[in-house]
Write a structure and sequence with these properties.
451 residues, Rossmann fold, 8 helices, alpha/beta, 5-stranded mixed sheet
Length: 451
């Protein structure tokens, strides 16, 4: 027998309470229905996030020959170190030595100790499995991948050099510049695409040698006075896409962003997809084309680099002294080429530039699975050779990633070594070409000149 309070007996719920109860039932039912139809990936419920973080036992990643390189690698769960997971590591190097091992991590991570006797780089790659032996996964740019650390260290990177350049290197480029000069610098198209009260942007095409025009967006202040503006030419990474622009980039300078191929800008996505699948499929990688310096894709690309600089310098608003070349990956390659082929370039900024040290495989240096195979003809287009010709007053800022084997750090360091002007290299631990480790350690080396 149940007992109820006397004042609750024989009373009906009021209409307002019934309404509130009905609403609660409805909302609860709706929430339950959502739970039943949504997949776990669609639920807005926080899940554990894994990552790896690694560092060395010193501030820089440069060691003496034979000196112990001590890596500490931690598995992080929601940004906090975790224990009880197996970390499997592989060591490779420019010295050809391969080693591997594994250890169960604690909250201080694991230590991996190695060394090398030769000038060059060591690479440490680490993955993780949970106590059940399953790979620990993470999400990078929307894709599920095994969690990893990819980093390294080096010995005497300032001693690294590439294959000797051809004896006729300068004569070859003198002929290429003559070929470019044989095509008058003519504006083929100049269409205004956007403006505001102070800045205007144009879609440009400029005649060029090599079979395709320079094609890009020019952004600059309206009514700029003669010789009043610095200039920046910005280059693209690998791929087939339109040039791009932002009015803000041209608010106080001449800004010229060019696509790599001389193709149309601002077209529907299908236009670029068809080019990527057709005419420009795998551009730059053809062994047949790369056997001859006149037929390699890089020949036309470098022609467009030179003509883009030439055009910007022809603008009355350019101040005649400040000319910056910038880009990352393939864009970094083009920025280095710009500095090497045009001594009016006063500043060069290159993030993890592509194709530095074409001959690395001939010298048994490490490289990833995506690289342009060596031919002697490519030495004419290697940025490590071209940068030697940069203006000694040109300033360089360059980035090397210790886990990047699309653009290996050894080649980036050789470009730095060969650059004659004041220069800075920033070397980043745990960063690949398409991945930046959170809170990555870095070290910076700066070399000043007496010029």
């Amino acid at each position: 027998m149940s007992t109820r309070s006397p004042h609750l007996q024989n009373r009906s719920p009021c209409p307002m309470k019934l309404i509130h109860i009905s609403r609660r039932v409805f909302l609860f039912s709706l929430f339950a229905l959502c739970l039943s139809v949504l997949t776990p990936g669609q639920l807005a419920i926080a899940e554990d996030t894994f990552a790896m973080w690694g560092d060395l036992n010193r501030q820089t990643a440069i060691y003496n020959a034979g000196e112990e390189m001590v890596f500490t690698v931690k598995l992080l769960k929601n940004d906090q170190p975790v224990a009880g997971y197996t970390l499997k590591w592989e060591r490779t190097g420019d010295d050809g030595i391969k080693q591997n091992g594994q250890a169960v991590s604690n909250e201080n991570g694991i230590q991996i100790v190695t060394s090398t006797q030769d000038p060059g780089f060591v690479r440490i790659y680490v993955t993780a499995t949970d106590p059940d032996g399953q790979k620990v996964m993470t999400t990078i740019k929307g894709k599920d991948k095994p969690v990893f650390f990819d980093g390294g260290a080096c010995v005497a990177p300032d001693k690294l050099q590439g294959i000797a350049e051809p004896d006729d290197f300068d004569a070859f480029w003198q002929k290429q510049k003559q070929q470019l000069a044989s095509v008058p610098m003519k504006v083929l198209e100049m269409n205004m695409v956007k403006e505001n009260d102070t800045v205007i942007a144009y879609d440009m095409k400029i005649a060029c040698a090599g079979g395709m025009p320079v094609s890009g967006y020019l952004v600059m202040p309206k009514d700029a006075k003669a010789r009043s503006l610095a200039a920046e030419v910005n280059f693209h990474g690998y791929g087939v896409r339109s040039a791009n622009y932002n009015l803000g980039r041209g608010s106080n300078q001449i800004y010229f962003n060019i696509n790599a191929h001389g193709i149309e800008n601002g077209q529907p996505k299908d236009y670029y997809t068809q080019l990527q699948k057709g005419k420009l499929r795998g551009y730059g990688f053809s062994m047949e084309e790369n056997a001859d310096p006149q037929t390699t894709y890089f020949n036309g690309m470098y022609m467009r680099v030179m003509r883009a600089l030439e055009y910007v310098k022809s603008l009355p608003a350019w101040n005649g002294k400040n000319l910056k070349a910038t880009g990352g990956s393939q864009g970094g390659l083009q920025a280095l080429v710009a500095a090497g082929l045009d001594t009016d370039v006063s500043e060069c900024s290159a993030w993890s530039p592509w194709c530095c040290d074409f001959g690395r495989t001939e010298l048994k240096r490490m490289v990833g699975g995506w690289y342009v195979k060596y031919t002697p003809a490519l030495l004419y287009f290697d940025p490590i050779n071209l940068v030697k010709r940069a203006n000694p007053n040109c300033q360089l800022f360059i980035v090397a990633n210790l886990g990047d084997y699309v653009c290996p750090p050894s080649g980036v360091w050789i470009a730095y070594n060969n650059f004659p002007g004041p220069k800075t290299i920033e070397t980043r631990q745990g960063c690949e070409h398409g991945y930046t480790m959170k809170n990555y350690p870095k070290f910076i080396v700066t070399t000043k000149t007496d010029n």
